[in-house]
Design brief:
- The complex is a heterotrimer of chains A (about 325), B (about 500) and C (about 140).
- Chain A has 2 domains: about 200 residues, Bordetella uptake gene, domain 1 (D-Maltodextrin-Binding Protein, domain 2, 3-Layer(aba) Sandwich), CATH 3.40.190.150; about 120 residues, Periplasmic binding protein-like II (D-Maltodextrin-Binding Protein, domain 2).
- Chain A has 11 helices and 10 strands.
- In chain A, strands 1, 2, 3, 4, 5, 6, 7, 8, 9 and 10 form a 10-stranded mixed beta sheet that branches.
- The longest helix of chain A is centred in the N-terminal third of the chain and has 25 residues.
- Chain B is mostly helical and about 500 residues long.
- The longest helix of chain B has about 35 residues.
- Chain B has a two-stranded antiparallel ribbon.
- Helix content of chain B is about 75%, strand content about 0%.
- Chain C folds into 2 domains: about 55 residues; about 60 residues.
- Chain C is an all-alpha fold.
- Classes of the chains: A alpha/beta (about 325), B mainly alpha (about 500), C mainly alpha (about 140).
- The interface between A and B is large, with 56 and 50 residues.
Chain lengths: ~325, ~500, ~140
């Protein structure tokens, strides 16, 4: 670690401590009762696991239970809407996932009833790249095998994703476009049923995030083909990235915490400070590592800036060439 | 395996583990019996408690809560006709009539024994043939899930024995209101009337508590009777099933345990589907199907053996593949990963001592709730001697708090009220409320899996008949639906001509 | 029997028709199943009408008169209770509901009613709030 970075870290820690002290004195009792944590995905998935682990640390930090409530379905929209429209008393926070939380309001403005500006950012924790994988006994050994077969059998190869317009689905669309193929996308409610369908040979391939399948790839239950990221993932280091194979498909899902936008500044501050402290806790980092979740910490305004950038990026892409035909 | 088991046994048989086991079982019983508090919630709420424990102790606690909460629902289902969760709906069909006939103690004895046998058989399966079962689980794809949902729905015909038309109307009405909520295939909300609380669809538990518990509270508050049991009924305090009871029900218990285990291993199916299918099969196999729904102990045995057999079954894919069999085991997996145990093939090798501790603790949890259930049944049964005018407000209060606690949403309490009145009126006018709940549980599954299958098969229905497993389920459905119908029609013809 | 089934069928047909109309604006794919169910419900209701017309037996009174007054009182008090929960919070409204309901029903001796109401509320507090940490609605009063 360079000296400047060390200095920065120490200053940051000091500031955090100061802010924490100030924060607690301003916010008085907050939180004085259990805080609900809305998770827009089913129990057992990686967003849910991240929520439950972080809840444990938040509880230790703030002295109140953080109760995970799963409101899953519709590629996250149900949970995101619930969070955006939640009471702003500080006792409902939740996890938001980029890209869905950014993309859904752009592509389906009439149906999706929240906007990215409806959230007050707390902190991003994890950025988890997308991956295409197949069953362990699949004929596709490499991404090229899959492309070759898809060229011979257009629209015949089935690939699961987590709902239209979600990150997995967008990754598939970008891949299809660049490789000049058509696949048969099948939406599943959650990773667990999709994994079971892939392992049972009911579908041919699966678009998913690295953390959700890294263990299964390591143990040989599934086979990864390529990672949708600019650099390789340490959990599955032998897998090539899409750019290495000559594609530009980049798709990652970022998971972070947010609150409904009108929550009191003081309360937000308490949560941001607590999250910053947790993100520097070595045992927390060790747990994330165990779960194959790459830390990508951005707090408060930084996170807000990232969300807006993502919004602009996807909006530009959508307006140039909409990927869902009406 | 045996040396691991021996090590695990040494760990489980300590006073400390026994205390955790006892507390978990007791808490699970209460959670299961209270309306709205499901096994999933019980396990999820206990997970933070396990953080401070070592993984083995934590897993003993979770296992005990899981097993006993599934059993706990049967007590109130039998005595008050207020099932705690959807797992025990089918238990009410015959359990409550038995109570009304003064056989509440016997019904609890049967349900406790059946739950015990179901739990033990599925745990044995988990211990001995988990990898094989996991392979079977993977054979189920979208078309098979669709057919399993249809199989479950076919029980509507069994539970509406007094009028098929009324039963079908309830069922189709249930299917229609089950389409409320966001359609995850298009992202379009259906029938939500601008209510965010309906985006998820009509929540099953508030509807269930309304249709069964609250409507029951209204009914007994209004009724002239001062107690649930008619006054002239003699009371039997005997709880432990007699040899005659056992010889009558053991086939049902074992058949239902097998069905429950198989349904349990399928990711996405659940306890209620298992108990519905088992109830249906018990009725079909019975020589006197018309006695079902009127207090046949086999009905109680079928439902309860099956829903407890799901516990072991649902842990099969969770432990061997890392794929949760249902919502409870998903929370279980969350608990495992938090302790650094990654479910999958490694769990039985790398962390074998912990895995076998969990399996062993499931055995002990089943024994524990059996002992507690039999020992305390005498006192549980006293509940029905409580005057209805005291029972009614208590059921109301528990229904309100239970339906609120599921999503912390007061909207759900409003739904509870609506479904409570609907349930009361339906029963008054000879429409059974059970098909509505059945449709709420299975309708969304049937629709999603059908559409998923059709996407996979490019719109063709032909593959449904080409896949061996799906063809087998189709044959089963045809047999189980058409055969009883044929028998009834023949019988009514004979009756008419005679 | 006859008139009642007829009325139920009419209500169901109106309900299903409304569902079909409401579903018109949905995308084709989302519309199929609701329309199938609505159509089925209409067909089944037709059978119900047919049955109600065919059953020419005199309307059998089930003996017990429909206890409308009592039904209204019971449901109204439950509704009031649910509304109270929103404003007063769960515990105080539960006490009020249980006390007034049991007094209204003349359920037991005054002292028994008070003891039952207090102990039910207390047990719920212990179990839900203290042991399970489930957030219970709070209002003006505790």
């Amino acid at each position: 670690m360079s000296r400047t970075r060390k200095f920065c870290m120490i200053t940051m820690m000091a500031l955090v401590c100061l802010a924490l002290a100030l924060g607690t004195s301003f916010a008085g009792e907050y939180p004085s009762k259990a805080v609900t944590m809305v998770v827009a995905y089913a129990p057992g998935g990686s967003t849910d696991t991240l929520a439950r682990i972080t809840a444990k640390y938040l509880e230790a930090e703030l002295g109140q239970p953080f109760v995970v409530v799963n409101k899953d379905g519709s590629g996250g929209d149900i949970g995101f809407t619930a969070l955006a429209k939640a009471k702003t008393d500080g006792y409902t926070i939740g996890l938001i996932n980029v890209s869905p939380v950014v993309v859904n309001p752009i592509t389906r403005p009439k149906v999706v009833r929240y906007r990215i500006t409806d959230f007050a950012p707390i902190a991003n924790v994890v950025t988890d790249p997308g991956i295409i994988c197949v069953g362990a006994d699949s004929p596709y050994k490499t991404l090229q095998d899959l492309i070759d077969d898809a060229k011979k059998n257009p629209g015949k190869i089935s690939i699961s994703h987590e709902g239209k317009g979600g990150g997995d689905h967008l990754g598939i669309l970008a891949f299809e476009k660049e490789a000049g193929i058509t696949l048969n996308g099948v939406p599943f409610d959650g990773d667990a049923p999709a994994k079971a369908a892939l392992m049972g040979g009911h579908i041919d391939a699966m678009a998913v995030n690295v953390s959700e399948v890294a263990d299964m790839i390591q143990s040989g239950q599934l086979r990864g083909l390529a990672v949708e990221n600019s650099k390789r993932s340490p959990e599955v280091a032998d897998l090539p990235t899409f750019p290495e194979l000559g594609f530009t498909v980049l798709q990652a899902s970022s998971r972070g915490f947010a609150a409904p936008k009108d929550m009191a500044k003081e309360q937000l501050e308490v949560l941001i400070n607590a999250m910053t402290k947790i993100a520097n806790d070595p045992t927390y980092l060790a747990e994330l590592k165990k779960l194959n979740m790459p830390l990508d910490f951005m707090a408060g305004d930084d996170y807000g800036k990232f969300l807006l950038e993502q919004h602009e990026f996807w909006k530009g892409l959508w307006e140039a060439d909409p990927w869902i035909k009406k | 395996m045996f040396d691991h088991l021996a090590i695990a046994l040494g760990y489980v048989l300590t006073p400390h583990s026994f205390l955790v086991l006892f507390l978990g079982t007791a808490a699970g019983l209460v959670i299961g019996a209270l309306p709205g508090l499901s096994s999933t919630m019980g396990v999820a709420l206990a997970i933070p408690l396990t953080f401070g424990m070592d993984p083995k102790t934590g897993l003993i606690l979770l296992g005990a809560i899981y097993c006993s909460s599934v059993y706990g629902g049967s007590i109130t289902a039998i005595l008050l006709r207020t099932p705690g969760t959807d797992a025990s709906i089918a238990t009410t069909f015959d359990g409550f009539p038995m109570t009304q006939q003064g056989l509440g103690g016997k019904a609890i004895g049967i349900s406790t024994t059946a739950s015990f046998i179901g739990g033990i058989i599925s745990t044995v399966a988990l211990l001995l043939i988990a990898p094989l079962l996991a392979k079977i689980a993977l054979k189920f794809g979208p078309p098979e899930y669709f057919l399993v949902a249809i199989f479950g729905l076919s029980i509507i015909i069994s539970v509406s024995s007094n009028s098929y038309l009324n039963g079908l109307i309830s069922g189709v009405f249930g299917l229609l209101i089950a389409t409320v909520g966001m359609d995850s295939f298009t992202g379009y909300p259906r029938f939500i009337f601008n209510s965010d609380s309906l985006l998820d669809g009509i929540p099953i538990l508030p509807a269930l508590i309304g249709l069964f518990s609250l409507s029951q509270a209204i009914k007994i508050a209004i009724s002239q009777e001062s107690s649930i049991v008619k006054k002239d009924v003699s009371f039997s305090d005997r709880v432990l099933p007699t040899l005659a009871d056992m010889s009558r029900t053991w086939v049902t218990m074992i058949r239902s345990s097998v069905i429950g285990t198989i349904v349990g291993i399928m990711p996405g199916a659940g306890t209620s589907i298992a108990s519905f299918i088992s109830y249906n099969e018990a009725r079909r196999a019975s020589k006197e199907p018309e006695s079902f729904g009127k207090g046949n102990p086999e009905g109680v045995a079928a439902s309860e053996a099956a829903n407890n057999a799901v516990t072991g079954g649902s842990l099969v894919p969770a432990l061997t593949l890392g794929i949760p069999g249902n919502a409870v085991t998903a929370v279980f997996i969350g608990g495992l990963t938090i302790h650094g145990l990654i479910p999958g093939p490694n769990l039985f090798i790398k962390y074998a001592d912990i895995t076998y501790t969990l399996i062993l603790s499931l055995f002990l949890a089943n024994i524990m709730f059996f002992v507690i259930g039999i020992a305390f049944a005498k006192y549980f049964v006293k509940v029905i001697k409580t005057p209805t005018r005291i029972l009614a407000p208590v059921i109301c209060v528990l229904s309100v708090i239970g339906s609120f606690a599921i999503r912390n949403n007061l909207f759900d309490v409003g739904l509870l009220f609506g479904f409570g009145i609907l349930g009361y009126l339906m029963e008054r006018y000879d429409f059974s409320p059970a098909p509505i709940v059945l449709a709420l549980i299975l309708g969304p599954m049937a629709e999603a899996e059908l559409r998923r299958s059709l996407i996979l098969f490019h719109g063709s229905f032909v593959p449904f008949f080409q896949r061996p497993l799906s063809l087998a389920i189709i044959v089963l459905i045809v047999l189980s639906v058409l055969f009883p119908l044929y028998k009834e029609i023949k019988k009514s013809r004979i009756r008419k001509s005679g | 029997m006859k008139k009642r089934d007829f009325l139920i069928a009419v209500v169901l047909i109106i309900f299903s028709a409304a569902a079909i109309i409401a579903a018109q604006e949905y995308p084709q794919e989302s519309r199929v199943m609701p329309n199938v169910y609505s159509a089925l419900l209409i067909i089944l209701s037709m059978f119900l009408i047919k049955r109600s017309l065919k059953n020419n037996e005199a309307e059998k009174e089930t003996g017990e008169h429909a206890p409308y007054r009592k039904f209204f009182m019971v449901t109204a008090s439950i509704l009031l209770y649910i509304i109270l929960v929103r404003f007063l919070g769960f515990y105080s409204s539960t006490l009020i509901f249980m006390l007034s309901f049991m007094f209204m029903m003349k359920a037991a001796k005054t002292i028994t009613v008070i003891i039952i109401s207090l102990s039910t509320t207390g047990l719920i507090y212990t179990f839900f709030d203290l042991m399970l940490h489930i957030p219970i609605p709070r209002g003006l009063l505790f």
